[in-house]
Amino acid sequence: MTNPPKASSTSPTHPRSERSEFVTQAPGFWRGILLVASLELRQRLRSKTLWILAIVWFCIIDVVTGAMWFILTLSSTAYDESFDAYPLFSIIVYFVLLFGTLVAPAISAGSISAERSGGTLATTQVTLLGTWSILLGKALAAWATGLALLVVAAPFVVLSVALSRAEPGQLLLALLALALQLALFTAMGVGLSALISSSLFAIVISYLLVALLSIGTLIAFALAVGVSTRYVEVEYRTFSNAYWEAYWKCDDGDIACYEAVPVECVTETMTTSISSTDRVWWLLAMNPYVVVGDMVAGNPDINRISDDLFGIVSVSVRSLQVLDRRVDYWSDCPTAPLHVTTDADYDPYQGTFPAWWIGLPLQTLLAAGLLLGGYPRLKTPAAKLPKGSRIA
User: Fold this and answer.
1) Cα 187 to Cα 26: distance, rounded to the nearest angstrom
2) What are the sequence ranges of the domains in the chain?
3) For residues 156 and 61, is the Cβ–Cβ distance under 8 A?
4) What is the pTM of this model?
5) Across-strand partners of 266?
6) Paired sense of beta strands 230-239 and 329-331, if any
7) CA distance to 225, 275, 299, 354, per residue, from 358 (Å)
8) In angstroms, rounded to a whole number, what is the distance separating the alpha carbons of residues 316 and 278?
9) CB–CB of 34/137 below 8 Å?
């Protein structure tokens, strides 16, 4: 009689328990962003293009810094003045901003559309990564690439501060302003890359957007001023001809003669143009050069505004905020003689506020709007695909 087979000591395998061994937990929002950014950066570092670009950029800014140093030295020698490298800081910072705005579309506007055209984007989309993680991870990688180019230029920015009268605080503000502008422009490029299927078209639109903010704002402001300009009859008081005849008879430095000239004023009427720049100045606020200049300038020395590009830009834009009150009447004729009048108490910042307080939020809204617009095009599963799109 044969014994019945013994029951197996192992318990039966359940399909559910087998499947549970292969279940992977989805990464969180922030971890997903870092994963996508690190993957994108590894791909960029494998290419020699980024290294070549960094070397070329280092050589270019080295030549520009040396050329500006030579020009400033030559100018000081020609006019027998002491050497002053104060403008060097603003020139170098603006040159770095120019290069950054030109490179930002190239390193960001093709990050998603190129993968979509190549059929490799679907590989990332079928993972457990969220759509926002993919979108913001691409933007973070593009920004990190831009910051790498900023690091290459940083020694020359620091050198320009050391050679000029700029303050260390301005250096920190300049680097912060440049980093913020790179972040916003790369975010705009990534948003356009997600929104537009064609990689070439996305890059072209991104460059057009840079041109719109840099040059288009100037054109829009000029057109707005031209439309709002009106011509009115204005009464004003000025010195009489008899006063000027007596004034110019005095010898240079003869204060007693100047004080003896009787001040005579007359009222005249003329046609003048009145522009309401206080209503349209905000069009310039989105300009990246205005944002950086006004942010770094702070409150520059009014007597040396012409020595610094930041001061010129900041004072010019803030002066546009002041309402032109010459509509009815103004006076060029003071109660005191002309030679004792002074503008020492003039403050161009009185009644105004920094332009970058308006420009930076508007740029942020534009970048956020483009990212929001690109989100539905990147989200999976897609309800509708553009004609000719590759899935895998």
Assistant:
1) 25
2) 27-223+359-378, 230-274+299-340
3) yes
4) 0.79
5) 238
6) parallel
7) 19, 21, 18, 8
8) 12
9) yes
